[in-house]
Structure formats: C-alpha cells, structure tokens
Amino acid sequence: MTSQKIGIYPGTFDPITNGxxxxxxxxxxxxxxxxxxxxINPGKGPIFTIDERVELVREEIAHLDNSNGGTIEIIxxxxxxxxxxxxxxxxxxxxxxxxxxxxxYEFQMASMNAKMAPDIETLCLMxxxxxxxxxxxxxKEIAKLNGDVSQFVSPRIQExxxxxxxx
Length: 167
Ligand code: ADP
Prior knowledge:
This protein is of the alpha/beta class. 42% of the residues lie in helices and 19% in strands. The model has no long low-confidence stretch (mean pLDDT 94).
C-alpha cells in the first residue's frame, strides 16, 4: 500500500476545457498524484475518440504550471469508477462543481460510491468564477455553429474543434 495521497479526476473530456484544466491544476496541488481518468464511453456519443481525448488532455497538461503540485497521469478507463480507483490505488475521487444543477448528480454519485467503497472519499472542488459557466457540451454546440470559443478552451482545442465540427 502506497503512502502517497492519490486522487482520480474522472470525466469524458470531450474536449477538455479551461474549466477542467483549472480543476486538474488545483487538485494536483493538494495531492501527491492525480490520475486524470478519461472515460471511454459514457454513452455520451463523444466527438473525439478516446485516443484523441487522452492526447488533448496530455497537451493541455503539458502547458500547465504545476511546479508546486503532485504528478499528473492520464489514463483511459471503462470500468466502474471505484474499481478504476482501486486499480490506481486512489483514495480520493475529484469532481468539479459548477452550479446547483451539478449538485444533485454529483451528490447522488458520491453517495452511491461511498456506499460501495467507504474507504474512497469524493472531493468536490468549486469551479473557479472565471470558468464556472463552461461546459464541453455547450462549447461543442457553439463550435458547430462556427461561434468563437476562444474564452472557453485553449487555442489548440479551438483548432481541433473547428477541424472536427467547423463547416
Ligand atoms: P462527466 O461526463 O463525468 O460529467 P465531464 O468531462 O463533463 O465528464 O466533466 C468532468 C468533471 O469536471 C465533472 O465533475 C464536471 O462537473 C467537472 N467540470 C466540467 N466543466 C467544469 C468547469 N467549467 N469548471 C469546473 N468543473 C467542471
């Protein structure tokens, strides 16, 4: 058993937004290691493949100033979240909370995970005020209609979105 404090931050990351990157940086600062778990198929019909989503997260993390933080790993997963947590020896599940609308779902998920795995704690970080309104789904909608998403995602992601969705 490792003495390191390991957390997982699971999500679809289709694609990773500035809001996700902010949570990754903040979570990594309070953990020895953060595993970003990219969910393969949560039934959300992602526009980027699992390999692309992992690669995009990797590119974003490379530009993150994490000099005071723990290490960050990116791993795709398909299993039950608590099984994946055990696989990577994580004792913390990190989630980002944007608004009241996120709360119901996150509360229910945290409660069910706590019933199944009482040794794993869910840690919700409040979205930063700069990013609290950003959602991957809306970013995709805007990009599809050739809107400007430069305030919500990095220039790299913006480019990938217009390649994939732009007219
Ligand atoms: P999921 O399919 O698990 O909801 P997402 O990729 O949409 O995956 O989100 C992963 C996590 O990041 C969730 O906890 C979500 O609430 C959080 N999140 C999404 N966007 C933001 C944001 N702008 N600020 C903070 N947290 C966010």
